[in-house]
Design brief:
The protein is mostly beta strands. Helices cover about 0% and strands about 75% of the residues.
Length: about 210
């Protein structure tokens, strides 16, 4: 099926770590990310989002988070749509493979959009592989795949089924114990019923900071 291709840029800031406890790191964790997304450069289509959350370390390999997310989006005609979401996720490291780490993240979101009354449920499943490059462990190769599934139709246009897939490849630099930068290419394939699918070719820069 034919697809429409666009080029864009995403900028991301992420901070996530354990709170300080009486005798070392607590099991409780904080999460915050802020994103600015430009689609189809020059068209005026952009999105920004803010996502705070709280987490709990279940085991050495598993962490649960939950929180709130605010989304503000503008299309090429200048129309804005706002969205409030609740989200819950479970992240775990499942294996060491070829000198790298394979991890997974399952996230569920409940979406409330300003153009409709229904609450939309969405599920997304991330598989991520990180492999150190060189001998210093300061540079990583990162590869991930993340399909998105809409769980029911809504009055604001969501249709149940596989809605998009994101495939990313890039590099991560550990600049200090508290600061890292990840940059690379993200292919966002959006499935559209009764029209051309949409493919966004995106350059992504993610600044990760621990306080």
């Amino acid at each position: 099926m034919a697809a429409e291709d666009n080029v864009g840029i995403w900028g991301v800031f992420t901070t996530e770590d354990a709170f300080d406890g009486v005798e070392g790191p607590s099991r409780w964790r904080y999460w915050f990310d802020a994103q600015l997304r430009y689609f189809d450069i020059g068209s005026g289509i952009n999105t920004y989002q803010l996502r705070p959350g709280i987490g709990y370390t279940i085991s050495d390999n598993m962490v649960a988070h939950a929180g709130y997310m605010y989304v503000h989006a503008r299309n090429g005609a200048g129309r804005t749509v706002t969205e409030d979401r609740l989200w819950q996720q479970l992240t775990w490291n499942i294996a060491r493979w070829s000198h790298g780490t394979l991890s997974m993240r399952a996230r569920v979101q409940q979406r409330s959009v300003s153009t409709g009354d229904d609450i939309g449920w969405q599920f997304q499943y991330l598989v991520k592989y990180v492999r150190p490059l060189g001998s210093t462990d300061n540079l990583d190769l990162i590869f991930s795949v993340e399909p998105f599934f809409i769980l029911q139709d809504t009055d604001w246009g969501a249709e149940s089924g596989l809605s998009q897939n994101r495939t990313a490849i890039g590099l991560g630099w550990k600049l200090s114990p508290s600061l890292a930068i990840e940059t690379g290419y993200l292919n966002q394939y959006i499935f559209v019923d009764d029209a051309e699918d949409l493919v966004n070719h995106l350059g992504v820069v993610n600044v990760k900071l621990k306080f």
